[in-house]
Amino acid sequence: MPAAVRRESGNTSRPVARRFADRFVDLAQARSPLCLGLDPSEDLIRHWGLDDSVEGMHRFCQTVLEAAADEIAVVKPQCGFFERLGPGGMDVMAKVIRQAKSQGALALIDCKRGDFARTMTGYAQAMLGDDSGFGGDAMTVTAYLGLDALRPVIDRAAACGAAVFVVVRSSNADGHFLQKAMHDDGRTVAEALADSITVINRETGEGIGHVGAVIGATIDAADSTVLDRLPLSLVLAPGVGAQGATISDVKARFGRAAKRTLPSVSRAILAKGPSVAGLRTAIRRYRDEAWAANSEQ
Ligand SMILES: O=C(O)c1cc(=O)[nH]c(=O)n1[C@@H]1O[C@H](COP(=O)(O)O)[C@@H](O)[C@H]1O
Q1: Which PANTHER family has this protein been placed in (predicted)?
Q2: Phi–psi pair at 261, nearest 5 degrees
Q3: From the CB of 132, is ligand 1 less than 6 Å away?
Q4: Does 1 reside within a domain?
Q5: pTM for this structure?
Q6: Which of 83, 93, 110, 218 to mutate to test ligand 1, by most ligand atoms within 8 A of the CB atom?
Q7: Is 133 within 8 Å of 127 (Cβ atoms)?
Q8: Where residue 37 sits, what CATH number does that domain have?
Q9: Cβ distance 111 to 136 under 8 Å?
Q10: Prior bond to 274 cis, omega within 30?
Q11: Rounded to 5, what percent of the chain is helix, strand, coil?
Q12: 35 and 108 in contact (C-beta within 8 Å)?
């Protein structure tokens, strides 16, 4: 699917990609909001009977994308699994991103970067936009050094029609020790972060903004009130499948935000390879469930 473009007023020479949120909403309707996690770990590659090498990894990823064809809205390569093979692995990630985009999907690079502002400029240039090192449409970040430290990534995303997903409530239970710690004003760290994200999105004034949030699909229903503080964010919800959550859990726990949510599945799909038919069956199952949950509301 060719990327639709618009031109910024006063700048007729540089086409700007449509905003990530707009592209996602269209794809969620036409395909499904499902996010396919691409995690070429050593155990999965070996489970498929492949060599844990650059060639094996490339074959693994190409097979998953062949099965996904043009049916998936978002593909999320997990950077760490590519990085572990050094430059060859990173080259595979770049190829995978190009292939996913050529199949009309959005490429969300799950790299969870979180350094101070000057260094985040480098990560933004590496990951976001067609003219970046890896050409991603979005990336994940962490805010342990403060949300202001993430500004270069947030600003670059706004400028090139990309998105940033800030981890607010991770899917792993031990992360809650930090994320549920209480500020003096009675808000948890996660709630305060969510409020700050909404302030930034409100500044752009264009509906759903370019700063999304990562909220694990595994969170307790009681903790999902943090979503009420993110009315202008897309929400990445990993934890469906291998970590025990279901698409129905996302619908039940995420309330009104479910319509803006990307439920994400990695291992529960990837473990069905190397058969393309097996992968496709799993992809379609989650894709259809996510589509139905989205359209029912
Ligand atoms: O940002 C993420 O995608 C993420 C956040 C989080 O809180 N928990 C989480 O598991 N993930 C990612 O989701 C993927 C795991 O997905 P499953 O294999 O489906 O459990 C890995 O790539 C994780 O890095």
Answers
A1: OROTIDINE 5'-PHOSPHATE DECARBOXYLASE (PTHR43375:SF1)
A2: -105, 145
A3: no
A4: no
A5: 0.94
A6: 110
A7: yes
A8: 3.20.20.70
A9: no
A10: yes
A11: 50, 20, 30
A12: yes
Question: Is 8 inside a domain boundary?
Answer: no
Structural domain span for residue 75: 17-296
Mutate which of 36, 39, 74 for ligand 1? The one with the most ligand atoms within 8 Å of its CB, which is 39
Q: What is the ipTM of this complex?
A: 0.99
Residue 175 is assigned to a structural domain of this protein: yes
Cα 255 to averaged position of ligand 1 atoms, centre (Å): 21
pLDDT tens-digit profile, the chain (297 residues): 333 333 333 344 455 679 999 999 999 999 999 999 999 999 999 999 999 999 999 999 999 999 999 999 999 999 999 999 999 999 999 999 999 999 999 999 999 999 999 999 999 999 999 999 999 999 999 999 999 999 999 999 999 999 999 999 999 999 999 999 999 999 999 999 999 999 999 998 879 999 999 999 999 887 888 999 999 999 999 999 999 999 999 999 998 999 999 999 999 999 999 999 999 999 999 999 999 998 875
Set 112, 251, 259, 272: catalytic member: 112
In a domain, 89, yes or no: yes
10 Å CB burial of residue 271 (0-12, 13-18, 19+) is middle
